[in-house]
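RESIDUES AND SHAPES:
===
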Amino acid sequence: MKLWTPLIVSTVLGLGVIPALATAQERMPDTTERKEPLKVWGAQFEEFEYRYSDDDEEIGVWDADFFYGTDNFKARWITKGEYSIEEQAYETLENQLVGQIPISKFFDAKAGVRFDTPEGTDRTYAVLGVAGLAPQWFEIDTNFYVSKDGDTSADLDAEYELLFTNYWILTASLDATVAFSEDREIGVGKGLVSTETGLRLSYDLIDRAFSPYVGIVHERKYGDTADFARAGSGSTEDWFAVVGARLSF
């Protein structure tokens, strides 16, 4: 009986303590409950501009990004194009539908599809890319493409902003495209295809929602791509004066 007495007392005390602990737990806030991720949406035009070349060519250009999602996943529609004002026709038109997730503190990975409507047959590509902020505050966006016919290519978009003041900003940009296979039908040769470099001086008129700018842009084609352009009486190198605005909604 002496051996059973401590066990009986402990059991009775335990049965009395359990309801009290349960009641206290109900009153305590649940710190493990996860909050619903905040959904964000918006649109941004990195470029929305008019270009006038040294050959008197007039072009309307845009580079826009529409997005919706959370910090963990965003759906993006990226659209780019060049429209010849004189010929009233698109010189280039590209649309991408991608999903994007974070892979580090400063970089995101993205994957999806790209649709092009160049001269000739339309093109469809699978897209795999990385975008983010590199050391020294360079904004980097690089992508790898595979067409339904197996043609592969890659591009790099790098940008750096130099702040003269909180409102005056000089932006230097570089776009480079490399093809790992030839697509003669749309005038793309194997190797370095083209580069576009630019300098734009902008003024943040309404925070960063509306920033008009002026600048210069240099475009150049290389290698077989340049040969295809010459054969079609096209230009292989151009300088443009630029006026436009950056827009955010």
User: Anything to note?
Assistant: The CA atoms of residues 94 and 116 lie 5 Å apart. The chain has a mean pLDDT of 86. The two ends are 80 Å apart (CA to CA).
